[in-house]
Amino acid sequence: MDLAPKQSKSEDLSALKSTAEQRLKNFMQDVTGRALVMMESATQGQQGISMDLVQEAFISLHKSYSDKTTEEWYPLFYTILNNKLQDWRRKEVRRAQPLSFFRKVSLDDDDIELNDVIDESTPDPSSFLDQAVTAEEIQEAIAKLPVRQQQAFMLRAWEGFDTQTTAQIMNCTEGSVKTHYHRAIQGLRTYLAHLNPYLGGSSE
User: Fold this and answer.
1) This prediction's pTM
2) Domain boundary, last residue among 51, 72, 101
């Protein structure tokens, strides 16, 4: 006869909840810094808004996907964060242009896909830069890019997502991701060329 005490269902649920919360805490510690950098670039340095967007994404992730694995959380979190960012951007456009409420709001001016863009491999963010270029200078250069280019570059280069996953997160085609990513790399090389004479925008 098994004389070991049986755990109650409430104890089991409590243990599962504790485990999920600990996983979320570890996950937040891993991605918060990078997510904030991404949002601060996208919101032109509005730290309060950036923190709100990231926190709301974590809350939504925990509320809807606490049963998913940690690996599944990464693309889910950035998908949620992207959606919240796009909602915020639409509200900002409508606030600045009240009549835009009555028409479709276009957030980006670089959504036209380039033909025959090579699906470039995902580099380390500074792999094509001289070591003399600091992280702050790279971040400043990223902030000068259009938002969708920022997202494509940071999701591919910083988070290491492939083109297909990045497209799912950004809710666009893989061709659009390739275009945004290609233009982002060209833009960064141009913005940082004055810091490194060996860099410079390559011709298309």
Assistant:
1) 0.74
2) 101
